[in-house]
Amino acid sequence: MRVLIVDDDNLVAMSLKTILSSDSEIEVVGTGSSGDEAIELYNKTKPDVLLMDIRMNGMTGLEAGAKILEKNRDAKILYLTTFNDDEYIIKAISIGAKGYIIKQDFESIIPAVKSVFKGQSVFGNAITEKLPDIINKKKSFDYESYGITSQEKEIIEEVAKGLSNKEIADELCLSEGTVRNYLSNILRKLDLRDRTNLAIFYYQNQ
Amino acid sequence: MRVLIVDDDNLVAMSLKTILSSDSEIEVVGTGSSGDEAIELYNKTKPDVLLMDIRMNGMTGLEAGAKILEKNRDAKILYLTTFNDDEYIIKAISIGAKGYIIKQDFESIIPAVKSVFKGQSVFGNAITEKLPDIINKKKSFDYESYGITSQEKEIIEEVAKGLSNKEIADELCLSEGTVRNYLSNILRKLDLRDRTNLAIFYYQNQ
DNA sequence: TTAAGGATGTGACATTTGTCACATCCTTTT
DNA sequence: AAAAGGATGTGACAAATGTCACATCCTTAA
Q1: How far off is chain B from A107, nearest CA to CA, in Å?
Q2: Contact residues, chain A, for B108 at CB < 8 Å
Q3: N or C, where is chain B less crowded by C-beta within 10 Å?
Q4: For A2-137, CATH number?
Q5: Are B121 and A131 inside 8 Å of each other by CB?
Q6: Per-domain residue ranges for chain A?
Q7: A149 touches strand D (CB under 7 A)
């Protein structure tokens, strides 16, 4: 099992190399410290698994990974990160990375590399907990912190269904005028222009 | 590492038991053959990992898993399936399952169980390939089949950004009246009432 | 060449939308 | 009890929206 390691922190790269080399099934075929190097070394060594940091100076690991995957659709990239970053994980899966684990969890790295080598996808401990939310895309905007009341929140839900003011009024047993007032307040609070933008906001923050 | 196995095909359950028991770190604490049994045995044995089939007579593995996770938020459920089913995998991740692999891939089962035990998530070979699409939810509505022209498609994009007719007109170098006409046609073709519903439609089919 | 059809535009119209000032109740606080 | 504040309502208004009939221009097909 041939592994390429890329991390812009040289100490980390070396530590990883030491750890991985201790396993008899693994051979570290190279170490790099930038996105450019990742691409270059990947093409040169064609490793079974590329273990790469996400945050790096210059080209990020994600950009480098995307480029590598463009040319090598079967590349197996396992990302390492110092902390959990929801945005990154979605992006990582999107481009086709095979895993995403945190560096701190040393013991998990070797099994993860092996799993990825076998063609599985592996997501680390802390990331695993967030997967359901990520799948459900529940960023769930905190309406309360913008002073949106529960009644107003209901109006937002109805607007997001595409109902007119009249229909919302009927639905919530209010007068149309009141619905308008509520909506007007909502738009001011969220700094949006009209109900269409509110609906868009709703779905983008859902 | 205590593992509970549930599969409505008894032969499969026994095979799995044999395979897993061959590993010194693993102890199979029970085998069941239905969703109800899964819940019952889970509560009785409190295993570290529950290895369960998705398709079962009566209650499905997903339903049983959801119920178990309601009461035991840290339950580690690894699903086994005979084939790849995109709908199931989304559902599985949504409820908080820790893995999803195919039965045929025997060699992967033990490493997968171990990874899940450690808190990672594991997705099997064939499933891994589909993850990017699943994350991107590329249902990508076929506007063409509804007779939406490319110009109209552009208008839709602009509406989905929340722009007014006037702004869209400026953006696309058309008169406001023309934009209205286009929009009117779009709404008729897609059987939608107004721009808000169009934006909603856009984001729901994105 | 002519007819057809598409893209673009105009004007008119009814409706919906968003805003504002203000009015009524009702409950809570002082 | 009086004051304050929230929830709900009204009326008026300007702007934006959606629809329709029709006009122009250009390209393409017959």
Answers
A1: 9
A2: 115, 118-120
A3: C
A4: 3.40.50.2300
A5: yes
A6: 2-137, 143-204
A7: yes
Q: What is the DSSP letter of A175?
A: -
Under the phi-then-psi rule, with left for phi > 0, alpha for psi from -120 to 50, and beta for the rest, what region is A191?
left
Strand D neighbours among A 180-199, CB < 7 A: 180-181, 194, 196
B148 touches B156 (CB < 8 A): yes
For residue A199, give the nearest of B114, B135, B196 by CB distance: B196
The mean predicted confidence, pLDDT, of chain B is 87
| Nearest C-alpha neighbor of B92 from the set B71, B119, B68, B63 | B63
Alpha carbon of B79: minimum distance to chain A alpha carbons (Å): 14
Query: B149 CA to D8 C1', in Å?
Result: 46
CB–CB contact A120 B131 (8 Å): no
Show the tokens assigned to B71: 């009461």
Cα torsion through A135, B83, B103, B34, rounded to 10: 80
Give the pLDDT of chain A (206 residues) as one tens digit per residue: 999 999 988 888 999 999 999 999 999 999 999 999 999 999 999 999 999 999 888 888 999 999 999 999 889 999 988 766 667 887 888 888 898 888 877 888 898 999 899 888 888 777 777 777 776 665 567 777 677 888 888 889 989 999 999 999 988 888 899 999 999 999 998 889 999 999 999 998 87
Query: Does A121 contact B120 at a Cβ distance shorter than 8 Å?
Result: no
Q: Which nucleotide has the least CA–C1' distance to B196? A: D17
Nearest-CA neighbor of B66 among B44, B81, B88, B48? Answer: B88
A143-204: what fold? Arc Repressor Mutant, subunit A (1.10.10)
DSSP A98-119: SEEEETT-HHHHHHHHHHHHTT
Residue at A80: amino acid letter = L
- Give B63's contacts (C-beta < 8 A, 6+ positions apart): B35
